[in-house]
Each structure stands twice: as C-alpha cells, then as structure tokens.
From TrEMBL:
<dbReference type="InterPro" id="IPR037401">
    <property type="entry name" value="SnoaL-like"/>
</dbReference>
<dbReference type="InterPro" id="IPR032710">
    <property type="entry name" value="NTF2-like_dom_sf"/>
</dbReference>
<feature type="domain" description="SnoaL-like">
    <location>
        <begin position="12"/>
        <end position="134"/>
    </location>
</feature>
<dbReference type="Pfam" id="PF13577">
    <property type="entry name" value="SnoaL_4"/>
</dbReference>
<protein>
    <submittedName>
        <fullName>Nuclear transport factor 2 family protein</fullName>
    </submittedName>
</protein>
Length: 172
C-alpha cells in the first residue's frame, strides 16, 4: 500500500466525478459551453437505445449541437449515483447510474419521460485536464411518454443527419 499513490488516485477520481457532474449540469441547465468543454474534440457516442442509431464517432461540436436541439423543448433533470471509476494511467472509465427526467406539457400523452439506467464514460487525460472521449447511454427501462423526443422536426433532424451519418459509424 502506497499512501501517496492512493491519495493521487482519490484526487483523480474526484476530478472525474466533478467532470461527470459538469456534464450533467450542462445538460440540465442548457449551458452548452460547459457541456462541450467536458468533451474531447472527437467523441464516441452510443445512444442506440434512445436514438435507434449505432455507435458513432463525431466532432464534439456536432454532438453538442444535437444535444442542444434535442433537449431544448424539454425541461430536464439528471441524477447520478453509484459512480464507479477505474483509472489506467492517462485513461479512465466510469459507470454511472442515472435517472434522467424530462418534462414537456403535451396533448398527446404524459408530460414526462424518465429513463433509468447508466452511462458508461471513457476519459482521456489531456493537457487541460480530463475530457470525455466516449459516452454510452444505456437505460434499463423508461416510464412516461417517449414521444416527448421528436428527432424528425427541425433543427433536430439536421443535427441527427450530421451526427448519425453512416460514415461516422464505429466499426465493431
């Protein structure tokens, strides 16, 4: 056991936890500059359960634009728990349980949509600190109205076309 290494690991895990919370605060508050600042310039995104599209690697600016347009109509609240972080030098991974609540008054069903599941994050330590290199959004179940998210309307549809272009799919 090496106390100085243990302390250094705790500090890095705290920095990563803070980054995860900034990611969520950017989403919930609509602070898209903060949200974008959490990401590497290119980021792997796997939101297949939500969007129906397979994992892609995209410019973080395009992903942020998609998130901004997709979430603009709804009020949102993400709560994170059970944060499990694994450090590996200049890389790290985290699994984070999440409850993502969304609200939008609707004439077509419930005014809420809640997703229960987790995020898997991949991180890279860069000169300016830790950044998110990959995000997998994986929910176990959803309650409420899935129709609150309409990816076919503009400007979301244009953002979808940029982000989920088949040329950006990650080859497995």
């Amino acid at each position: 056991m090496n106390d100085s290494r243990d302390i250094a690991a705790l500090i890095e895990k705290d920095r990563l936890t803070q980054l995860i919370h900034e990611f969520g605060w950017g989403l919930d508050s609509g602070d898209w500059d903060l949200y974008r600042a959490c990401l590497c310039d290119r980021v792997r995104i796997d939101f297949e359960r939500l969007t129906g599209f397979p994992e892609v690697e995209v410019a973080a600016d395009d992903w942020t634009d998609f998130a901004r347009h997709a979430l603009a109509p709804v009020r949102r609240h993400h709560a994170y728990s059970n944060i499990q972080i694994t450090l590996d030098g200049h890389r790290a991974k985290a699994r984070v349980h999440m409850t993502a609540r969304h609200f939008l008054p609707s004439d077509n069903g419930a005014a809420h949509n809640t997703q229960y599941g987790w995020y898997d994050f991949d991180f890279v330590l860069m000169s300016q600190g830790w950044k998110i290199a990959g995000v997998r959004h994986w929910f176990q179940w959803v309650s409420g109205n899935v129709g609150l998210f309409d990816f076919s309307r503009e400007p979301v549809a244009s953002a979808v076309a940029r982000v989920f272009d088949p040329s950006r799919m990650v080859k497995q």
